[in-house]
Amino acid sequence: MKNLIFKFLITALGFFAVTTSSAQLNINPNGPITPVQAVQDILIGAGINAFNIEYNPTLGGNATIVQPNVMEFNAGASAFPIGAGVAMTTQGVGNLGDPDLNVLTGGSATNGCVIEFDFIPTGDTLSFNYIFASVEYTSYTCSNFNDVFGFFISGPGIAGPFSNGAVNIATVPGGNIPVAINTVNGGAPTGGGNAATCAAADPNWQANSVYFTTSYNPIFNATGALPNFNGGTVTLSANSDLICGEVYHIKLAIANDLDTGLDSGVFLEANSFSSDVVNIDIQAGASASDSTLVANCTEGTIYFTRPANQTDDTLVVYFQTSGDAIEGTDYNNLAPGDSVVFYPGEDTVSLTITPTNGGSTSNPMSLIVNAQTITPCGDTIIAEGTIWLLLEPDFVTMATDTTIFCRDPSVTIWGSVTGGFPPYDIVWDSGQTDMPLQVPVDGANGVYYFGFTATDQCGFEVSDSAIVLLNQTLAIDTMIQFPSNACFPSGAVSGTAEGVTAVVGQPYYNWTGPDTIPGIYSVDGTVLQNIPSGWYYFTVEDDVCSVMDSIFVEVEEPPVSQFSASPSSGCEPLTVTFTNSSQNTNNYYWDFGNGNTLSVGNTSSQTQVYSSPTTVMLVAFADPDCSDTSYVNISISICGCMDPNAVNYNPSAQVDDESCQYPQPEVEAPNVFTPNGDANNPFFTLNTTNTVQLELVILNRWGNVMYSQSQDLTLLGSFIGWDGRTPAGAEAQEGTYFYKYVATGIDGTQVEGHGFLELVRD
Predict the structure, then answer these.
(1) What total of structural domains would you count in the chain?
(2) In this structure, are 152 and 91 located in the same domain?
(3) How far apart are CA 565 and CA 582, in angstroms?
(4) Cα–Cα distance list, 253 to 51, 155, 269, 281, 638 (Å)
(5) Do 66 and 215 share a domain, yes or no?
(6) From 494's CA, which of 119, 173, 211, 622 has a CA 20 to 30 Å away?
(7) What does the pLDDT look like over 273-330, one tens digit per residue?
(8) Dist. CA 619–CA 632, nearest whole Å
């Protein structure tokens, strides 16, 4: 008789107070695996002896070397329903040419993965669990891209349509329809698919949506080693009737359809490839570990399970307990007669473990449960599970002992908690509940203690304290700054420290800046030179401490070139005086713009003569490499008399300088005239030159005005004069008359004159 032992032993795991859970599968947690390891070490469970393991035989694959699309996985902290197992994907493999997959796809299967092997069962059934997933669910449901897989089993008592008379046991529950994209999905086409395509694969395809879920998608997306599957089946079971002791062959195969992209995968549950076995699994409730229970705090559950295809009959399973823990003393009595009964339709029976503090001193105590079943072949199979009972949890705290040598506004104090039953209530002696704790350490030198207490959900308490040692003597004593030139970096900083503790080597000094740490200027020393204005940071570090301070480097007043010209415009030749009002300077260079230059060490005024317009430049120096420049424009005009009537008229002048010279008015007067009706001397008139206005008054010898006239000669052209008549129009008597006149010249000059005239008619 064969004795096969199937043991489930869960190793205790501790948890820290602060943990992070990643909703992803752990891929190859123990390193990459070969297909042989995938079958022998992970997939095969009780009642199965496997051999002749092959990988992708149509392509000449090697099952003894690592294959990238065959992976071990475990669920980790995720909610994936299969805790551990083997994942097979279609990633990165050439066209398989597998005849059975081509039957499922209609001859278009491409890249994928095939693992096949022979096995001998000790029972008369085979059962294992799986989940199918694909990237095609959101975009190619009910299309021609119908990724498929199959579990093709052949051997005694099996007659099917596939190679070697195999049948496919990867089918929709309750029938013989293969599980695929177009048979198990969300019940609606996606990405432009046609419902008729799915209906052709399975007329009841929409009812199969109960076997489809997208709840694993966040887990798939977080698992970088897998394709981003966007849908999959619920956990399904593959089952077959067998003849115990006979040799069978199974091919586990998956492939893409038509294309080689948008991969698919199948997840096979670890140890589920089994034959006729009752499995025992002991699980803890709320616990510091999934393999430990604590007295008067937590309870556990023993799960007895049998294959899903063996639920038609009533089955009584007897079990035994052993280990350090005593039933009825250290934990409750589990079941009358130490047996459990599976009724028809039941595949799981559970018992509750309630640990008590019954007086045992052993800590921890083991509780081992084993059950025996006899296969139809007469073999005895023993299933076993183990859990540990604790009188109190392994509950430990650890506080950081931080040595602080320098005064800072605060320091971070950490306290960690492991074991017990999280979450924990943590209280520091100060009453604060934060973790980590920020505490001030800027007081006097000495030792400071910061204690805390952690209480778990069962009321267990542990305490610890963090120690902070403040022992600062290092300090920055003096910092000096030397201002920088405004034109180039010429500043400097210097620093010294006191209280240096240099047990090994010399203290470390560093200057850096400006304005950032680190800055573009940096030196490991006490002096930093040739720097511009800005904030600079001085760091001193000895064997126990580091301190830092800052100082601002000022900038000298910049040179300012400035001068004025008086006058800055006028007629040539123009004499100009320049006044130098520059600031923060000591030497000057003049370029007067008229060909003259001058270098001088004072701000004395300068005088120059100009006959044409120009620009004057003054360069004012603070030192030879730092200066400023200013400019003044000088405007020169050509001046003269612009009046063509002037004696000194200048047709080239740009500006009238008001120096025009005009001819004086001249007047000639006759002493006799004869207004006797002939054409000779009919008027007494004045002959004028250079005259624009003429006034004439004629008086008789008694002083009576005989004639008075004022004429604008520019309008009349010539002066007509007196015709020898009285103001009343009568002919005046012959005789002597008196005249006087005022002649106005071109420039307004007036000339006055008078005289006597004879009026003769004969």
Answers:
(1) 6
(2) yes
(3) 14
(4) 17, 18, 16, 30, 109
(5) yes
(6) 622
(7) 887 666 666 555 544 345 677 887 878 888 887 766 567 778 788 888 888 888 888 8
(8) 12
